[in-house]
C-alpha cells in the first residue's frame, strides 16, 4: 500500500505556503507562491488550488496518495461548512472555500482559522508533540490563540473558541480600547503592537529611557532595552508578561492543559520573558491546576501553519 500524505495550505495576505506531511507530522516538502490579493477573490482561490497541485506534482508523490487538503486562513469562518464569511487581509467575503477546493481538487478539504491551525501544528509535531491537551499563544501584531483538547481543536459553536487575545483581563482603570472595539483585551498589552504602544507612551510622557533615542520603536527594541537594564522598558515587558501569566492562570482552571506553548515574534525574547510569565502563573494558579504544567516556546516557526493545516485531515 502506498504511503498516505497530507497537504496543508497556509493562506496569508502576501503569500500562500503549502506543505506535504506524512502521518507523523513530518514536513516533507514546501512550496510558496504569491497570494495576489489585489487581483480579487477568483484569482486567490485559483492560486490556492494551483499551489496545492504544484507541490504534489513537483514531489515524488501523486494525487492518489493525498488523503486530503487542510487550509488555514485568517478571518471570520463558518468552520464546519468551510465557509469564509470575511477575511479582511484577503478582502474575501462570502465564499465557500471548502466546496470550491473539493470541486477543483477532487479530494477531501477542511478549512479552519489560521491560529487554530498553527496551534494544531505545534501540538501535532512541534513543542506539544505527544501532548493531547495544550493551549497555544501567538504573540505578534496581535495575540492569537488555539486550544487543543484531546488532540483536537476546540472551536466552539461559532468558531470563536481560542480567541485568547480578546480575553478582557486588564482592569478598567488601566484598560484601553482594543482593535476589536472592546476594552482591556490581553492583546492591548501583550502583543508586539501593545508593547510598542506602551513604549511610545512612555517616551511621550518624558520618562527617562533609552527608548527615547530610538527613531522607530519596535518590540525587539523594548525587549533589548529591558535586558540591558532600562527600567522603563523592563516595566513594559513585565506588564506584558504579567497579563499573559494571569490569562494562563484562568485557562489552567478552565481547561487544565498540560502545556502552554508561546510562539510569534515576541516569544523570541526567550527566558527573559518566559521566566516572568512562569512566575505570575505560579503565583495565581491553584496547585492542582499548575502541577506538572509547562510553559514553553513554539518550535515550528513559520511552518506551524502548513503542518497544522495538514493535521486537520489526519485529526478529523
Structural description of this entry:
- This protein is α/β, with parallel strands linked by helices and 316 residues long.
- The chain folds into two domains: 130 residues, ATPase, nucleotide binding domain (Nucleotidyltransferase, domain 5), CATH 3.30.420.40; 169 residues, ATPase, nucleotide binding domain (Nucleotidyltransferase, domain 5).
- Helix content is 38%, strand content 23%.
- The strands form three sheets. A five-stranded mixed β-sheet has the order 3-2-1-4-8.
- A hairpin with a 4-residue loop joins β5 and β6.
- The chain is globular.
- It starts with a strand and ends with a helix.
- The model has no long low-confidence stretch (mean pLDDT 94).
Summary keywords:
10 helices, 13 strands, 38% helix, 316 residues, alpha/beta, Nucleotidyltransferase, domain 5, 5-stranded mixed sheet, 2 domains, 23% strand
Q: Would you count the extended β strands for me?
A: 13
Elements, N to C (H/E): EEEHEEEEHEHEEEHHHHEHHEH
Could you give a short account of the major beta sheet? 5 strands, mixed
The CATH architecture category of the largest domain equals: 2-Layer Sandwich
Radius of gyration: 20 Å
CATH uppermost class of the largest domain: Alpha Beta
Low-confidence stretches are none
First-to-last CA distance: 22 Å
Which structural class fits the helix and strand makeup?
alpha/beta
CATH topology of the largest domain: Nucleotidyltransferase, domain 5
CATH level-four homologous superfamily name of the largest domain: ATPase, nucleotide binding domain
Provide the helix percentage: 25-40%
Characterize the overall form. Answer: globular
Average pLDDT confidence is: 94
- The number of distinct helices, counting runs of at least 4 residues, comes to 10
Q: What percent strand?
A: 15-25%
Q: Estimate nothing, just give the exact number of structural domains.
A: 2
Amino acid at each position: 500500500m502506498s504511503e498516505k500524505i497530507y497537504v496543508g495550505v497556509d493562506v496569508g495576505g502576501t503569500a500562500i505556503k503549502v506543505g506535504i506531511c506524512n502521518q507523523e507530522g513530518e514536513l516533507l516538502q514546501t512550496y510558496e507562491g504569491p497570494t495576489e490579493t489585489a487581483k480579487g477573490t477568483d484569482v486567490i482561490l485559483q492560486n490556492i488550488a494551483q499551489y496545492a497541485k504544484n507541490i504534489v506534482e513537483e514531489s515524488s508523490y501523486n494525487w492518489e496518495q493525498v488523503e486530503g487538503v487542510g487550509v488555514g486562513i485568517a478571518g471570520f469562518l463558518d468552520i464546519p461548512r468551510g465557509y469564509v464569511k470575511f477575511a479582511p487581509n484577503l478582502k474575501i467575503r462570502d465564499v465557500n472555500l471548502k466546496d470550491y477546493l473539493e470541486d477543483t481538487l477532487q479530494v477531501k478539504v477542511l478549512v479552519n482559522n489560521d491560529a487554530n491551525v498553527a496551534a494544531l501544528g505545534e501540538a501535532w509535531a512541534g513543542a506539544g508533540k505527544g501532548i493531547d491537551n495544550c493551549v497555544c499563544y501567538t504573540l505578534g501584531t496581535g495575540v492569537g490563540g488555539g486550544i487543543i483538547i484531546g488532540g483536537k481543536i476546540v472551536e466552539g459553536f461559532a468558531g470563536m473558541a481560542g480567541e485568547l487575545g480578546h480575553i478582557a483581563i486588564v482592569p478598567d482603570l488601566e484598560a484601553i480600547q482594543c482593535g476589536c472595539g472592546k476594552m482591556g483585551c490581553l492583546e492591548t498589552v501583550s502583543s508586539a503592537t501593545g508593547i510598542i504602544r506602551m513604549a511610545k507612551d512612555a517616551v511621550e510622557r518624558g520618562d527617562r529611557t533609552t527608548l527615547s533615542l530610538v527613531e522607530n520603536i519596535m518590540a525587539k527594541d523594548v525587549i533589548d532595552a529591558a535586558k540591558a537594564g532600562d527600567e522603563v522598558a523592563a516595566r513594559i515587558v513585565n506588564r506584558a508578561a504579567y497579563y499573559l501569566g494571569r490569562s494562563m492562570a484562568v485557562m489552567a482552571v478552565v481547561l487544565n492543559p498540560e502545556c502552554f506553548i508561546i510562539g510569534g515574534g515576541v516569544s523570541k525574547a526567550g527566558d527573559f520573558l518566559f521566566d516572568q510569565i512562569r512566575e505570575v502563573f505560579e503565583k495565581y494558579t491553584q496547585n492542582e491546576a499548575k502541577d506538572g504544567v509547562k510553559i514553553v516556546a513554539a518550535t515550528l516557526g513559520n511552518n506551524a501553519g502548513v503542518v497544522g493545516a495538514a493535521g486537520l485531515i489526519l485529526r478529523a
